């Protein structure tokens, strides 16, 4: 795993769930470092057993469908649960705020829901997901903890009809939720947005602020004053 933000857990610590590029991506580590600079002890576990997607998904021999099939909930949920347990039992964090991006966004939302044990002592206080991919209706309907989502209007994996479904499903839960839409933002903008393009830079920077504000307010289990 990669950890940042000091050597000791903060009361609310961040579990950072990466996109499919995993810990091999400098952008993922820089974003984790941003949570550390914001005052959160942050852990990014290796979700892919040392073999993430190549940074160039067009690399010879790489099959994205086969890769995702090999890293479904049956394989990924236990790794996320172990990382939550590590933050709480080994590092001593009181609460865990989960921030997930793309692939990791799905699991941030799963761990905010009864699908992965929310409300049954799994130690998670709130979740943030940026441009989550691969999520199912059942997973969103099961959300039971405060959940914030950042979406881009140019995200081919979350087109308008799918975004509307996400909002409708969240609105039928009893948990606080938020869904922000950023213009000019493609899939992956919150991690790999092109900061030389003003709209993408704004979306990337503001989505990070969105996550931090959400955690400040909700991750303690009750609104901060």
TrEMBL record:
GO terms for molecular function: hydrolase activity. It comes from the Eukaryota. InterPro entries: AB_hydrolase_fold, Dienelactn_hydro. Keywords: Hydrolase. Pfam families: DLH. Residues 10-216 form the Dienelactone hydrolase domain. SUPFAM superfamilies: alpha/beta-Hydrolases (SSF53474). This is Dienelactone hydrolase. It comes from Apiospora arundinis.
């Amino acid at each position: 795993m990669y950890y940042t933000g000091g050597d000791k857990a903060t009361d609310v610590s961040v579990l950072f769930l990466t996109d499919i590029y995993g810990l091999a991506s400098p952008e993922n580590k820089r974003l984790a470092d941003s949570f550390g600079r914001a005052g959160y002890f942050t852990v990014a576990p290796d979700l892919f057993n040392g073999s993430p997607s190549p940074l160039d998904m067009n690399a010879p021999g790489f099959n994205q469908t086969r890769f995702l099939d090999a890293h479904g909930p049956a394989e990924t949920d236990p790794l996320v649960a172990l990382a939550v347990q590590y933050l709480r039992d080994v590092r001593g964090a009181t609460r865990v705020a989960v921030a997930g991006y793309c692939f990791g966004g799905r699991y941030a939302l799963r761990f905010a829901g009864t699908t992965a044990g929310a409300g049954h002592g799994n130690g998670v206080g709130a979740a943030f997901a940026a441009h989550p991919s691969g999520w199912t209706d059942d997973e969103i309907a099961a959300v039971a903890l405060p959940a914030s989502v950042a979406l881009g209007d140019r995200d081919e994996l979350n087109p308008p009809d799918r975004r509307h479904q996400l909002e409708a499903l969240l609105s039928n839960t009893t948990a606080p939720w938020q869904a922000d839409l950023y213009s000019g933002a493609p899939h992956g903008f919150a991690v790999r947005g092109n900061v030389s393009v003003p709209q993408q830079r704004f979306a990337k920077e503001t989505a990070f602020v969105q996550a931090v504000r959400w955690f400040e307010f909700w991750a303690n289990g009750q609104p901060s004053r």
